[in-house]
Every structure is written in C-alpha cells, then in structure tokens.
Write a structure and sequence with these properties.
The complex is a heterodimer of chains A (about 300) and B (about 350). Chain A is built from 16 helices and two strands. Chain A is mostly helical and about 300 residues long. Chain A has two domains: about 20-50; about 70-300, MetI-like (MetI-like fold, Orthogonal Bundle). In chain A, strands 1-2 form a two-stranded antiparallel ribbon. In chain A, helix 10 (about 170-195) packs across helix 13 (about 240-250). The model of chain B has no long low-confidence stretch (mean pLDDT about 85). In chain B, the strands form four sheets. In chain B, strands 6-7-8-3-9-10 form a six-stranded mixed β-sheet, sandwiched between helices. Chain B is about 25% helix and about 35% strand. In chain B, about 35% of the residues are buried. The radius of gyration of chain B is 24 Å and the shape is elongated. By secondary structure, chain B is an alpha+beta fold. Chain B has helices at about 45-50, 95-105, 110-125, 140-155, 170-190, 200-205, 225-230, 235-240; strands spanning about 5-15, 15-30, 30-35, 60-65, 65, 80, 160-165, 190-195, 210-215, 215-220, 240-250, 255, 260, 265-270, 275-280, 285, 295-305, 310-320, 325-330, 345-350, 355. In chain B, helix 2 packs across helix 3, helix 2 (about 95-105) packs parallel to helix 4 and helix 3 packs across helix 4. Chain B folds into two domains: about 5-230, Rossmann fold (3-Layer(aba) Sandwich); about 240-355, Nucleic acid-binding proteins (OB fold (Dihydrolipoamide Acetyltransferase, E2P)). In chain B, strand 11 and strand 12 form a beta hairpin. Chain B is built from eight helices and 21 strands. The chains are: A mainly alpha (about 300), B alpha+beta (about 350). The interface of A and B includes residues 199, 212, 213, 216 and 220 of A.
Amino acid sequence: MTMAAIGDETQVDTTGKRKPSGPALWLLAPGVIWMLLFLVLPILMMVYVSFWTQTTFKIEPTLTLKSWITFFSSETYLGALWTTVRIWLIVLVSTVLVGYPAALFVGLFVRNKTIQTVLLVLCVIPFWTSFLIRVLAWRPMLGKEGAINLILMKIGIVQQPIEVLLFSELSVIIGMTQIYCVFMVGPIAFMLGRIDPSVIEAAQDLGASFGRIFRTIILPLSMPGVVVGGIFVSVMVLGEFATSAALSGRKVNLLGNIIVTQVGSLKWAFAAVAGVVLTVLMGAVVAALLRVVDLRKEL
Amino acid sequence: MSAALQLVNVSKSYGDLKALDRVELALPDDAYISLLGPSGSGKTTLLRVIAGFEEPEQGAILFNGKRIDGIAPHNRGIGFVFQNFALFPHLSVSENIAFGLVNREFNPITDMASVKTRVRDIISLVGLTGLEDRAVTQISGGQRQRVALARTLVTEPKMVLLDEPLGALDANLRSRMRIELRAIRERCGVTFLHVTGSESEALAMGDTVLVLERGHIAQSARSDLLYNRPASPAVARFLNCYNLFSGSIADNIFVSQTGRFAIGGFRQPSSQPAYAIRYDRVDIRDKDAPVHQDEVRLEGNFVASEYSGSAINSFFSLDDGRVFEVESHLSRSAPQTYVEKGRYALVWKREDALVFA
C-alpha cells in the first residue's frame, strides 16, 4: 500500500502524462529496498516458518500443516482470537464515543487556531511519559484499594470495593481506551476543522436544527476522520499485548500475548501461525474500514 | 411599492470599530437592490445583521411590518446566498437544493414526491436541468452559483440576500450571471439585496443602488441618479468616474489648490465642499486652443493612456502633482495620440461640473 502511494505521488508531481523516467525512478530505490528487506521479506519468512515442523526442543524446515491444525483446533487459541476481536471492537467503539465529542469541541466549537492547537497538544501530554508507566498507572487507580474504590466508598456509593475494576477485561478496555483515544481525536478534529463555517450557517439559514445539521452535514463530512482514526486504533489494539498483560493479571489473552509466550518458549512455528492470522485480520479490518469512505476522494 | 424591509437606527460594532452606525433603511418589495460599498464599509455586517447571523446592539429591523431582530435566521423568511456559495460538499446538486425543504425544523416536507417536484421546478428555473445528480464538486463556478441560489429560492423566502455573489466567478461569466440573476429574480418576484464592491456591477444590476460608507448609508437612489448626482464627495470618489478637488467657495468661484473654477452647474448640499467633474465630460485640446465663455480650463501634462475598446482613458499630471483622468469615447471621435509629457488644455463646461457645498 505504501509503495503504491509513493508511486502515485511521483506521477502527480511530474504533472503530465509523462511517466517518471529512468533516473527519477532511482529516487524510489532506498525506500523500495528498505521495505523489501524489512517488511516484505520478514512477512514472507513468517508465512514460510508457520509451515515448519516444530518439536519440543527444535524446529526443522520440513513443511507441515501441523501448527495450523493445532491453532484452529485449540480452544485456547480460538478463544484468544475471539477475545482479540471482541476487545478490539469494544475499544474501537469506546474511543469513538469518548473521542468524537472531544474532537467536535476542539474542531468545530473552538474557532481560534491557537487554542485549537493548545487543546490538541493537551491531548498528547500523556505521551510524554513511557507507555508502560501510562499502563501501570491504572493499577493504583482501579485496584481493590485504588483511588476509584476509595472515593466511591468514602462517599458511600458502594459498601464493598468493586473488584471487577482491576485484573479483568474491563480494566484492559479502560486502559486501552485511554491510551488510544487521542489517535481518534486527532484525525476527527482535523476533518471537523476543515468544515467551512458558512456551510453550517447555510444549513441553519435553511432551517435545520443542530441535531439535523449534525446528522446530515457534520457527521458525513467528518467520516474520513473517523475512518483514519479507526485504522490507527485498530492496528494498534489488534497488535496489543502489554496492556492486557499488565492490567488483566494474565487473565485476558490476546493474539499478541500468545505470540509473546510462544516466542518466549521458542515455539517459532506456532508464533508464526498466530502472526499470520493477526496480519490477515489487520489487513481485513483496514480494507473494511477503507470501504466505508473513499479516502482518496475525501482528503 | 411598500417598504418590505426597514432598518431603524441600527448599530453594530466590533470592539472599538463601528461596523454599522445608526443605519436607516427602507427597501421596497419585488425589486433588485444593490448595496455598494468599499471593503470595510460594513456591507457584509449589514447583510449578516439582516439575515440574523449577527444581532445589532441597538435599533430595530422590521420585515413586512413585524420586528425580526432577535428571531433566529431561519424564521425570518429571508434567504442568504453565501459569497463562497457554501454548498454541502458531500451532497449532489438536487440533494443540496432539497436540503432546506427536507431538513428544516419548522414544517419539513416529508412527501418525497412533492420535494422532487419542487426541486425539479427550481432546477429548471435557474437553468440546471441535466445536472441533478452531479456532485457539487464536479460542476463549474457559475453552476455552483445557481445551486446556491436555487437552494435558497426553493424554500420560498420573501427576500434573498446575496453576499458578493459574483465575486468568485471570472469576468466573462460574471457579466452573463448578471443578466441571469436579474431574470431569475423577475421570475420569482422576490426582493434581491445584492452586496458588491464593484460600482459597475451595482449600477448594472440594481433598480435601486445603496451606497454604504463607513457604517452608514451615504446614498440610496436609482442607478442613473446615483451616477449623475452622487450625494457626497465620498460617493463620487467611490463611483470611480469623477475627478475630485477639495477647496472652498468664494463669490461663485470654487477655490482649490489646483486652480479657481467658475461655478455654473448643479450644487449638492454637503458638509465637505468639493468640486467634481466626470471623466467623460472633459475635452482634451491643444494648449493654445480657444476657450468659450462657459468653459473651465485647466492645464496638465500627458502621462499615459489606457485603451479599453470602446473608450480611451488618458491620464494627465496637474501642476500640483495630482492625476487627472479623461475618458474619451471612441464612438464620438477617432483616437487621438498625445505626446508624452506634452502640455494640453483640459476643458469642460461649467454646468457639467458638480459642486458640493
């Protein structure tokens, strides 16, 4: 996909029907070589290794379907696949639910460009600390004797601490939503900021209520932002393993966690199977999201 | 003709800047009115106040006898056509036009068949037949202009405000759309208030021309009256067809830094004394040519001329350094050639001059 985009841009830049000729094509060489060596080749290797024969202590390049059969007949692994899909969908929805209103405020209701930038920078501030700290910081918040339970008990809303808050699927979802929300806010706010204010005034002048204007004008015009944000969040959540490891107490196993464990115990063929499944899943998700909106036309 | 729209003592300011300063205005029903003003004169503010996008700080706006200030824009019965058209970029031509009918809060039309009929009627009225399903990003500037107009007209407003509607079009299209806009207006019989910064556009289009100057209405008159009898030196300057001199009057003689002019023509009461002579009322003669009794004479050095097809505009530098412009229509005489830096007599009839005093 990256390659295709680069190729297209070169053609546009030369303005005209003339195709880029010999020497100009060499400009692509570093990028192409890099991608071949570190993206295409490893992916092919991964597919290849997934068919190797794995025994307890070693791996042999004898082709077999055994790892694939084990993966698709094991409840653990299919369960992990299902958990991955479920958590991805929930996080995707919750980042939209949390991110869209914030983006709406920043992109549409703040018309001052400086304040807009300041607000977007504020969204990024958590990224100034390391990923692990951001994840682990949720433990003292959500724990049995954590901040949230403490406050809820102090003001008497609950008698017993809510235990489901930490080391559960819920805590993984809460953590991921917070970490990835900003990737949803940014693209949506950008698209909303591009809406000409007079278009909204025109809709008002024609008598539409805010709800109508939102549904018929603002939402469709911001869809490309939602899709781009959705792609960001999906790709990151589908490949996640750290948040679930840190916040679920190993109760929630995502495909990412499976890969980490298998690699840790030198089960390369098996890790490769999970890797291929994950890559195919991501490819399908991105393709599906791109189906929703024709980004080329919209951006 | 009764006054459809009336503005009484309307003021609006942004910080220290008075955008509208006690505007008094009465617009007739069923007419094409152009609102002319230099940039920064408050044209757009006036339009936005009438439309309801801005509220005035003081004064009242009456529409068909009812006060409308404080009422939401869409409840005023006034349509607005934006300068950049503000079409909905993701909707087709017919969806853009149908938007108001389908989505308005008050009395929306739910019967799709009747929406279709009305959209089809208005599309043929503005001449967009055949483009119904095109995306608005795939049509030309003039067609977008028509979509913007149709989108407003289909909701049957009693008045339409157009904010520099021809500003985004190229010159050729602009002159065609002028005729088109007037024709469309006559067909639907509503008042158009057309804001423009171009004096030729304002004069060509308006049954009545309003001139806005620094937040107040400087003049409201028929095109020909405005052109021949500007109410103040500022209006005359903005019409871009008068040579203006400031000075004072003593004994039927206008005394300015450039020279003394005998007064014989029309006198316009004004707070600022000024002397104005139209570009096309001046004769260029040899320095030694005779001058009649009723003529005023001035000398200047020829600088350059500009050919515009039907006329030649010649520029002269007067002795005090000011530039004096003369427009000679080529239908009356063959083009003359003048010597650069040559000295010529600039002569006009006393009664052709306009005196503000």
